[in-house]
Structures
1.
Amino acid sequence: MRTRTYGAQIGNAGNTTVLHGVFSGNLSAFGLDISSGGDVMLTDVEANDNATYGAAVGNGGNVTVQTGSFSGNTADYGLDISSAGDVSLANLEANDNGDFGARISNGGGTSIVNGFFDGNLTMFGLDVSSFSDVFLMNVSASNNNTYGADLTSGFGGVTVKGGTFDDNNSAGGLDVSAFWTHRAADISASGNATYGADLAADTACMLTAPLTGTPAALV
């Protein structure tokens, strides 16, 4: 869907499902905006190269994104999710946006598998603030203007398995704050402007080799 203003705006009290949607190249505004009272599911969705942001989701349930591209949006971010429930993302990219790649704020847990949040021009690659557990597998957040990824779990743990958080321009690669245990394995956090990885947990941090990067701060 390519228009001279925005792509699509959806508002409803129930669940929302979008299958095989393209919301790209809109010349004056955003690609996709969803405000939903229930669950939101996006499958094979593109929201690229819009004038402002790619996609925004605000809802009262869970959010699932299975295969999505939210890249190259000129003046703003790729993907912004504000959810009351769990968030699950798989096979997703949010690269080369004018502001940040992806931001998630939610009242449940967050899982991201195979995600790329690279080369965002003004701010960070990925920011997650969840009430419960945060799990990342095979995630890249590199070459962003500030930091790579910032992960916060208010009352859970954080696990990062396999990831690249390199060459971010004015801050660190990976920043983690968890109420319970933080686990990191097979990650690279090298060549960042300040630190490689800053891992803070109220109980324990578990690091498993290989880990490469500029010195990590363990709190």
2.
Amino acid sequence: MSRLTQTIAFFILIFAFTTSLGAQNRYSYQMLVGQQRDGGVFLDVIHMPGSEPGNTRVIILHRLNHSYLTFRRQVIQNPENIQTRFTSDVSITYDFYNSSSDPVPREPYLYRETWSGSVTVTEFSETTDEDRYLAGVTVLEIPADTYRLLPVIQINGREVTGARAEALRGGRAATQMAPLRGRRAAREAREAEQRRGIMEVPDLSTDAFARMTLLGAANDTLTVRNHGRNVNFGEDFDLLISYPSAMQADSLELRVFNTGNRASSETGQSSQIYSAFIDPSYQLYHGSPQFISDGSLIKLDFAEDTRLKHHRITVPNHRFANAWYHAEVYSWHDGTAEKVGERSWQSRWFDMPVSLLNLDVAIDMMRFIVDPDELRQVRRSNLDEKETWFREFWSTRNPTPETEYNELMAEYYRRIDYAFENFSTPTTVGFESDQGRVYIVYGPPEEVDRRLPAGGTTTEVWTYPEQQFIFTATSGFGDFQLVQPTQ
């Protein structure tokens, strides 16, 4: 099975509300641009035993991409030169309310903890770089109970509001889909709003529990993943499983279920896709986990504590589709299994090419490599037939069929994105231009020679191992026409 299957999971999710719009409102590539981008903010919450019975340590991990932040410009004059810096000062206040409070509580908070930090860069391009981020950890100890957690973020002294605040609180997506899916979806959106921020803080005073922490790449150092509840699609990762030293267990079992396009702890209708056993007599680490952040990475250390021990296990995520997963840990003792811990995560293709957000668009973009008559027939097919054709087309061309990630398919659709971003002009969409079409089929040239003759027409020569393409400018806005492919 190829990466294709995982792509279909996204297609089905999108079709759940796009098909109701009618054929006249079908998505185009341009409509999808930007939809694959996340809000740029990620939160994850981990629970560990507290210092007193009945109390629980709540560890909140956050990651704020530079694209989410706002930066202020600073000019520093030195005797030798003038330096420019861009700084973002951030604070996040986590307020815990009674779980019965309104989504916008009127009563005072029960517990509050604030984190603050800052990031400074020297280049303006770094202020919008989605690969750069500010990370941090907030820890507080509170009684085990059910709460409503509402974080409030301030950047450069101003509270973040609107959609950017909703991205932090995780309450936006269901509301946006409601108008597209009718009354049922509207009701679901209202119910989701009521549940927003509801957090159960478990009592870990017992001797029968297990907690799971998402770590970085397999066999990496003890670095916490810190991407919310997400792991990178197609990449293996490690789980740190923490449990009491006093727990009576002959062995531990990790079970992983595919729950499709939604996070769910209901695994009855889900397919179990992975299982692994752990010998509790062999421990990798012991002690109370300490989460230490340097502003970018969050690493684990262990303080002396005989109550806890920890195992690290690699999850073969390269075999899994990009979907939601629910993991459960079972304690086996005298032939009986007891569930002692669970958590969910999403295997997510963060840089998914734009076309793959919609099946019709993905198929339409295959016009550069598929016979027009065949493609015309596919477009007339129903949804199931389209999915089957699309899956079979790419699965037979998967260079690594033993993995979910189809490198060839990803490369093809990335070329379409590149063409759109680099060859679009006021009059032509990039992938429809001559340069865009050549790039999509042949990939990046080995050499680009741009010639600017005095009083003549600008010419570009693209050189490939066995072929050259010559383009001439037809306007002053980046339009080029193919005039001569040569062997």
3.
Amino acid sequence: MQSSSRDRNRGRETTACRLSSPSGLPRLLDQTASLVDSLSLPLSRQADALRGLLDRLCEQRFHLAILGQFKRGKSTLLNALLGEEALPVSVIPLTAIPTFIRAGDRRQVLVTFSNGDSITSASAAKVTLG
């Protein structure tokens, strides 16, 4: 039952997004996903991908890749874009791995290791690796 409630909430948010967007892109993505669903072909994965794009568009989430050599100001640039010092800036390279930043109600750090294990902390200063 919880899943259907979540789908109804997403539907309301998506509807609000469609109505408020001057570009019409959310409406087009929603219509395309519905059309793909209506086809008698096994395309549910593609329809879900379109709905995922619609969700990201409505939530104003996107990926921005910042690439460059070590110590060239990438973290400083991101901190400036965010308007706060979210990433550490140091003489020693600290963000040499993919780093994802997303909005939330509170600050926290989630570290995911290559073996799938992860740790979460409310402060970057409290995360100890090893």
